[in-house]
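stage 2 :: seqdesign
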């Protein structure tokens, strides 16, 4: 996808990245983000340049050997297989578009079910992305393009934790809705800026992740935009979108003295922002193990209240 950002870093972005309203006196300034008075979505402030975004998504963020220690990467691929099965069951016949396809795991899982697909990803070259190419002998077809550049008629379009990385995610969502085939399925997962954990942890919330996350969208704003694009929301979940329990666990562990960043601790050494001694990493993982029941309970309660850490939507074009 073409994440074209302003050439220079701006102290305050002039418009909301979600609804394009002016960020004027009605906007609320928070640390690292500005909340739009019109739609309630926060835009990352300062707005990064394209070069800063490229650097933030390179290197340790997605190293050649994979991101997570132990079985983490294999578990992620397995969850993509579950998602592929669900999409194949719900979508009409036809090809699937994956916005922000990463290493192409979802596209390969769909291909295994007989579904053709196309991935959009930064850095794609001649139909292949570096990450997809190293993950299989025959990688899925991946291009760098905007949704608005593509033809219509997709049986399903997926944006799995990718809209928050786009400089104009609202327009991308509108474009995706317009390019679905009749009865086509849109699947979106992203962090919920109106979640309980976002309120509890504030500026320490895991899912803020500046500058990679350019927008911070409440679940209600996402649902409203999907409906305004002419789609019917068929399913909404605060558990299927992933990261809900880990968001709590990361915040709880980070509040303890002597622990390191849990997200770094579960990653491979070359995928960490900051090096960790074996002792400190062990202490961090031990704390996470002890706090896991509390994190699971908190994630369940906030999901039951409709304010989970992530939001998952399935919507259909009638």
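stage 2 :: out
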């Amino acid at each position: 996808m073409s994440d074209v950002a302003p050439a220079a870093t701006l102290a305050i972005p002039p418009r909301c990245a979600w609804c394009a309203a002016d960020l004027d006196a009605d906007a609320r300034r928070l640390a690292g983000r500005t909340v739009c008075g019109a739609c309630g979505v926060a835009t990352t402030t300062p707005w990064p340049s394209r070069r800063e975004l490229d650097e933030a998504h390179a290197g340790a963020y997605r190293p050649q050997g994979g991101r997570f220690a132990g079985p983490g990467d294999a578990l992620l691929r397995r969850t993509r297989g579950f998602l592929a099965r669900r999409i194949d069951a719900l979508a009409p016949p036809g090809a699937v578009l994956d916005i922000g396809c990463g290493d192409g795991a979802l596209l390969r899982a769909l291909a295994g079910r007989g579904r053709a697909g196309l991935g959009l990803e930064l850095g794609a070259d001649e139909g292949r992305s570096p990450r997809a190419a190293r993950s299989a002998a025959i990688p899925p077809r991946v291009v760098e393009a905007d949704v608005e550049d593509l033809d219509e008629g997709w049986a399903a379009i997926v944006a799995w934790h990718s809209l928050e990385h786009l400089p104009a995610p609202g327009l991308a969502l509108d474009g995706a809705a317009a390019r679905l085939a009749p009865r086509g399925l849109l699947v979106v997962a992203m962090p919920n800026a109106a979640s309980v954990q976002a309120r509890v942890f504030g500026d320490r919330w895991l899912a803020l992740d500046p500058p990679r996350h350019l927008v911070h969208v409440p679940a209600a704003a996402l649902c409203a935009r999907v409906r305004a694009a002419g789609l019917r929301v068929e399913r909404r979940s605060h558990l299927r979108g992933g990261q809900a329990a880990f968001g709590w666990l990361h915040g709880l562990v980070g509040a303890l003295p002597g622990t390191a960043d849990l997200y770094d601790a579960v990653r491979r050494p070359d995928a960490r922002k900051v090096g960790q001694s074996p002792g400190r990493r062990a202490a961090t993982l031990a704390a996470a193990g002890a706090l896991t029941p509390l994190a699971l309970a908190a994630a369940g309660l906030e999901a039951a209240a409709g304010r989970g850490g992530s939001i998952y939507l399935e919507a259909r074009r009638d």
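stage 3 :: structure notes
- The CA atoms of residues 152 and 271 lie 38 Å apart.
- The domain at 69-238+311-317 is CATH 3.40.50.150 (Rossmann fold).
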